[in-house]
Design a protein that fits this description.
Blueprint lengths: L1 E6 L5 E6 L8 E6 L3 E6 L5 E8 L9 E7 L4 E6 L4 E2 L3 E7 L5 E8 L3 E6 L11 E2 L1 H5 L6 H17 L5 H14 L1
Helix pairs in contact: 2-3
């Protein structure tokens, strides 16, 4: 069994054991404390934290700097520890924190990934980065209008179901529109 922290696009989190987690399948079972069970479809997940570890001494050397751009507007930066492992429904990547002191193995469904940018430096603007999304997903990365509409539709659905208040909806909607 592997311990997993599941993070959803609305920032909800669920933690448990995933005995048969495989990103080549479109869902997985999560065993939560107290005999609870949940079947979670990967398209409903923002990312999975599969493993977190301290690094002592801090990592050094020529690790690639990247930024993971999620469809909801969040950006996660880190050093790419090794080549990502692609699966049918997602990618597994190990990131080292920018200061080199912590390793984080993530499972990221393609549905939640907007772009992966290789950075020249931590301070560089987007125009200085190189988009490497196609290398990670094997899919076309030129669907920005479709992605924009899907992101707006998702936010509207969350608001209609009462999962997002109007101020949070407006903030996230602005983030989606700014990415366009």
């Amino acid at each position: 069994m592997s311990h997993v922290l599941v993070r959803f696009p609305d920032d909800e989190m669920l933690e448990g054991e995933a005995p048969d987690l495989d990103l080549d399948r479109d869902n997985f079972e999560l065993l939560v404390a107290g005999d609870g069970r949940a079947v979670i479809p990967l398209p409903a997940v923002k990312c999975l934290t599969l493993h977190r570890r301290p690094i002592d001494p801090p990592a050094r050397g020529e690790l690639g700097k990247i930024a993971l751009h999620f469809r909801d507007g969040d950006v996660l930066t880190g050093l790419l520890a090794e080549a990502p492992r692609r699966s049918r429904f997602g990618v597994v990547a190990e990131l080292i924190s920018p200061d080199g002191t912590e390793g984080l193995r993530l499972g990221i469904p393609y549905e939640s990934l907007g772009a992966v940018t290789q950075l020249a430096s931590w301070e560089c603007g987007e125009e200085e980065g190189t988009d490497v999304t196609v290398a990670w997903t094997g899919r076309r990365a030129d669907t920005s209008l479709v992605d924009l509409l899907a992101g707006l539709r998702h936010l509207s659905d969350l608001r209609e179901r009462g999962l997002l208040g109007n101020p949070e909806f407006a903030r996230r909607r602005r983030n989606v529109l700014d990415r366009f």
